[in-house]
Design brief:
Urease, subunit C, domain 1, TIM Barrel, 9-stranded mixed beta sheet, globular, binds zinc ion
Amino acid sequence: MKTTLFCNSRIIDPFGETEYIENGWILIEDDTIKGIGQGKAPEFSVDEKIDLDSKTVLPGIINCHTHLYSALAMGMPPPKNTPQNFVQKLQEIWWKLDLALDRESAKASFEAGLMECLKNGVTTVFDHHSSPNFAEGSLELLVDTANRFGQNISVAFETTDRNGEEFFKSGLIENIAVFKKFQSNKYVHPLIGLHASFTLSEKSLKYIHDQLKGLKNWGIHIHVAEDQADEKDARSKGYKSVIDRLNKFNLINEHSFIIHGIHSSNSDIELLKNANATLIHNPTSNANNRVGMLPNLHISTLHSGLGTDGMRANMLEEAQYGTLIRSSHLKDGEPTIDYLELLFKNNPQIASKHFARPIGHLSAGNQADLAIFDYTPRTSINKNNFGGHILFGLAEPVDVITRGKYRIKDRKFMTIPEAEIKQNARKQSVELWNKIQKI
Ligand SMILES: [Zn+2]
């Protein structure tokens, strides 16, 4: 077991046991934090001692919902038909992109997407994947990629009826195969991915539940009530709501990962609370899709987590933009939401629950994931005001450590060929965009 002592650093762990240390040390053994303290470190006998030269250490950051499959969409030509509403956006853009993905373009998306996450200090990623023409082996490829990069990964494949029965089944089979294979893996959290209620029939929901019988501790990862169209569909089928519908098929439990929930009712939120399910908020995606804003009450009742829904890799930006988007909807004096609480309190709680061990804080027993910033503040920084510095001062980390090992040092990737991955992703992006034009 390798022991490393990091010393001479400012340590910020919002909502952690020790929130702020002006000058301190962190002791790591193998992939776990063993101790943290203020001032000069005790005389530990360690394999390596690293002087951080007053750099600022934060916990490795967690993204609770994203779509790495969209990593090659940046700069993509606009759709042939301009979408006029949310469902048309899915039909004209995202459902064409996912159909065009094959093994090579999916691999390039995973590599480029996860690399960008790491560059932004994001060390744990909950992904919701879709590549109907490359289902079998897709989630395992993502697991392999995340393992090579040293990131924790939660995987799920978007099961849906929208491409017919054969694709529906291949998606579900991939979910279940990967669930069985990686259920006990320390760094992997498999969930059962469903796209959304409105793209799954009554027969399909029953079939999904039947296939999960005999498995233990499974949870679904699904978009819920992102747009009114999802709620209308559930009501047209005789249910009170999407959550009511999923609940009637016994698909809601304490492992459920519910994404968006914008148009869910207060009684839906109560049902999710009683089930101890997880809700994830994605403010910039919601603003981009013009679908409305998750009510404050939903966030506070369920201690909602924060995700980017494929919009970006930088979670500090997501927190900052989330704050601004909410402010733009509020009147003078109305209460808002503390997005740093979502990012640094709720996300670690959610990751620790789902990966079943402490993740996301800088205290003994947590996985040794660190984002280290070379930050010289232009205003005074202390234990009472570090939040403002996180939101408005910090840029990209210079070093990123996961599982106790340097993955980025002095802005350079230590184990990943960055230039090669980007070159391949650029090549794959052109081929992918050409394929999309023909769908
Ligand atoms: Zn999503």
